[in-house]
Fold this sequence. Notes:
13% strand, alpha+beta, 7 strands
Amino acid sequence: MEVQVSGMVASKDDIEWEPSFMRLSPSKINTYMKCPREFYYKYIAKIPEKKTIHLFRGTLVHQVLEDLFKKQFKSLTAWEKGAPRTWIQEQFETGWEEKIAKHKWLWEVHTKAEMDAMYLETEDILQNFVTSVNKKLTEMVKWKIYKNKYQAWNSVAPKYAEKWVKSKDYAIIGIVDAVCNDFDGGTTLLDYKTSKRYGAYLPEDYYRQLIIYAFLYTLEMGEMPKFVGVNYLRFDDTFFVKVTQSVLDEAKDLIKMVHNCLKEREEYEGRYEQVPQNLCKWCSFHKSNGGPCDAEVPKWQPKYKKKKESYSDIDPKLKGQIELEVQEQFPEFD
Length: 334
């Protein structure tokens, strides 16, 4: 038996299934997948954690970028007449004083050099975002992707700047940083990241977060987004996941799995196993940081030496032929 629910098909098992005692979020799920014992300390025992400037900085950046399109610059006219670079600088300086500088205890956790470096990094992230928007507005017209800046603005400016997505049936909630529409009417969900974590890959925890957003958005809006991506604000680079029914099913199964684990483990600490890993050194709950967890941090292991590959036996003409075939197949990307 199948039943249509908010644009998705729910099986009989889904309807009879019930969530656990806790409302989840992508962050909670990622914490559980990383280490169930850390999840227990953080969300069940609720042991206070040592807060760092990174938490406050992330909150500040997200708030400024939300207000940028949602409150201050709702149109291209407002953007071109409103001096967004000046506005975002004022918001940053005010926010830094109100949300970070006032916490004097942060100066006990971090050195002055660290605080000064974080100030400059955050300022650069926000200013670079404005630069990126201006660059896209100019170049998309210059390269004839759009006829004018007004059309380009509809592609650059998000449809929603921070959208809450939730499901009562699956007891989970999340916040999508930006919802954008392309020229074909397709929807893309974006999550902003301020961390230095970057590479030509998508980390598993980011992937889980993204597909959960796609699942919740589809449930709530009755529309499956085309893509969901993570935007590395430091580098103005975005990695995408193509959203399909199998991706949504994967997200649903993940949410149900964590709920089922919580129902099985309930609130007993011993049922939440430790997962010793190198990240334990930075965990607030580890004994090395004054916490209750006694997990032994694994000893460092040298990485294997990769054998150098040789392509001397391949005809150089073949490389040119392959490159030519690619250009013929995808000429629009030349």
